[in-house]
Amino acid sequence: MAPRATVDVEFAIRVTEPGPAAISVAAAHADTEELRVSWHGDSRPVEFEHGTRAEVFDLPAGEHRVTYHAERVLGEAEPEPVTLADVAVFTRPSRYCPSDRVAGLVPPELVKLKNPRRQIEAIVRHVHDRLSYVVGASRPTDDAVDTLLAGEGVCRDFAHVCITLCRFLDIPARYVGVYAPGLAPMDFHAVFEAAVEGHWYVFDATRLAPRQTMLRISTGRDAADTAFLATLGGELDFLGSTVFATTDAALPVDDGTGLVVLG
């Protein structure tokens, strides 16, 4: 029997100015799922490309509790082809991945490699070895250049640096928010996908969880495109969250090499 992953999320918000808010916590291709907000108003579903979904709620003032539960059977997914539109979008600089400003920070050995897969593997090794994973080390405004200069960050920073270096080498790369069974401490997690021989494969320079059991939440150019909570006119305060992602089978061993498809 195929292993099954289970996700449970809960977070609280305080709305100070009523208005719409987009909640994007849904796992892609979930077999069963339920999203609830303590205010029982109707939502408007929004579908984006590359597996991202959101629910837009018109929230009144006050405190609200959001819960999400999902289950999905884990199986071998088919790699998604890289389109010409993907190449156009995911080789350009973006807010947190300024690939046009990173030339002086790119190791020469990455440029000398001519095989894109070998370049991606070398980028993952370089970022893993160069950066220290330090919870709370980065600011929400830090981009990949800030992270490289600081030498430390969290998962989103590792992903931004890898994406930036890939794009500098003209390799399409994109940011992915995921649930990651085995992650410690447990939270939302960020990884990246890069183009290898015309298809998207997932990589993670933090090496904090096996890629084989990750569940996609959202996909975009960088973290600016993939927030799990965003206001669309109102104002709110985020009060805290808990995230649990587990699997009913033993976690696979992932040494960081090999091509893995993210479903």
Please tell me about this protein's structure:
The protein has 263 residues and is of the alpha+beta class. The model has no long low-confidence stretch (mean pLDDT 94). The longest helix has 15 residues, at 116-130. It is globular. The protein has helices at residues 84-90, 108-112, 116-130, 144-150, 155-168; strands at residues 4-17, 19-23, 32-37, 43-47, 53-59, 62-73, 132-133, 152-153, 173-179, 189-196, 199-203, 215-220, 229-231, 235-247. The strands form 4 sheets. Strands 3-6-1-14 form a 4-stranded antiparallel sheet, with no helix packed on it. It has a 4-stranded antiparallel sheet with strand order 4-5-2-13, with no helix packed on it. A hairpin with a 2-residue loop joins β10 and β11. It is 18% helix and 36% strand. The two termini are 18 Å apart.
